[in-house]
Design goal:
It is a single chain. The chain has a single domain, classed as 2-Layer Sandwich (HIT family, subunit A). Strands 1-2-3-5-4 form a five-stranded antiparallel sheet, covered by helices on one side. It has 127 residues and is an alpha+beta fold. The chain is built from four helices and five strands. 23% of the residues are buried. Bound molecules: adenosine monophosphate. Adenosine monophosphate (AMP) binds next to loops.
């Protein structure tokens, strides 16, 4: 089943300027802004400007230019927020939730860049 993109999702509205946002980075194909409900001192969302529902949708259907731009934007956010372990930062975690098991709330691809504190183990215990 092909993905069906809901153009009324909140990130689509941000991209169209219908909802205010404070971008921390904008590139040709990507936008990054602080999460409205931060879970860590650094919590930035990076989204592609194109209509992609989740990561696999983007990985399979986006152009090479979009993929390169998005990947570089994530790297730039790591640099801007000072979390790069190779540059003296303490590290970070990337999360891209997808679908019901991933508990994705907003159906527009977004990568969470989290850092600024010890983030704990990868997943909480099952059960
Ligand atoms: P997810 O569960 O991965 O879909 O997470 C969606 C994220 O979007 C949550 O962390 C929300 O806090 C965040 N979010 C929802 N609305 C906004 C908004 N208007 N601006 C910034 N972040 C938002």
């Amino acid at each position: 089943m092909a993905y069906s993109y809901d153009a009324q999702n909140i990130f689509a509205k941000i991209l169209r300027g219908e909802i205010p946002s404070a971008p921390v980075l904008e590139t040709e194909h990507s936008l990054a802004f602080n999460d409205i409900n931060p879970q860590a001192p650094v919590h930035v969302l990076v989204i592609p400007k194109g209509p992609y529902v989740c990561y696999d949708h983007f990985a399979m259907e986006a152009s090479e230019a979009e993929i390169v731009d998005f990947t570089r934007a994530v790297g730039e956010i790591c640099k801007m927020t000072g979390v790069q372990p190779g540059e003296g930062g303490n590290g970070f975690r990337l999360i891209a939730n997808a679908g019901p098991d991933g508990v994705q709330e907003v159906p527009h691809l977004h990568v969470h860049v989290l850092g600024g504190r010890v983030l704990g183990r990868m997943l909480p215990p099952a059960g």
